[in-house]
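pls design
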């Protein structure tokens, strides 16, 4: 389905009122991520994927020039996307599910993982945050974290690093 000009896929839980996990997906990887999750757990939860076509725009907290050779600039659209996510996309997802979820979790990896952590500083909408291999190297992000307080501390916060982040040239 399309919500706010974005492709959204909803995988409803078996039971109404189950938790909702919102996952910002690269292109059309959401179905594969959902399939893998179903192999790993028997927990009942709804899963919604939002296909992000321009990561450097939608998920970056502020504008910066290209960081990597042959890359594009990051244009800093995270606040605008977060407003759309919390104001239009999630309410529509909840409407489709037919009941308010027990809680809402925001999950992502790479730049979407950075966005998930950034979101907790901007909104109290997410009770749980998961950032897998989050792009914490993003210039200025650690200074942002040190100088800002979260809008609300999540009930649970999951952070992980992938096996290649330790060898990055971008140190935080």
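designed seq:
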């Amino acid at each position: 389905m399309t919500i706010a000009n974005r492709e959204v896929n909803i995988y409803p839980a078996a039971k109404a009122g189950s938790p909702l996990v919102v996952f910002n997906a690269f292109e059309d990887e959401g179905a594969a991520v959902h399939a893998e999750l179903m192999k790993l757990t028997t927990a009942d939860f709804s899963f919604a994927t939002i296909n992000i076509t321009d990561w450097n725009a939608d998920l970056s907290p502020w504008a910066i020039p290209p960081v990597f050779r042959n890359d594009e600039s990051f244009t800093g659209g995270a606040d605008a996307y977060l407003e759309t996510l919390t104001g239009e996309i999630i309410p529509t997802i909840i409407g489709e599910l037919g009941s308010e979820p027990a809680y809402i979790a925001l999950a992502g990896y790479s730049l979407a993982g950075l966005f998930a952590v950034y979101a907790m500083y901007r909104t109290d909408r997410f009770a749980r945050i998961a950032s897998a291999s989050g792009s914490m190297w993003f210039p200025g992000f650690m200074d942002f974290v040190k100088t800002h307080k979260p809008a609300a501390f999540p009930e649970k916060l999951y952070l992980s690093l992938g096996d290649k982040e330790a060898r990055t040239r971008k140190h935080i």
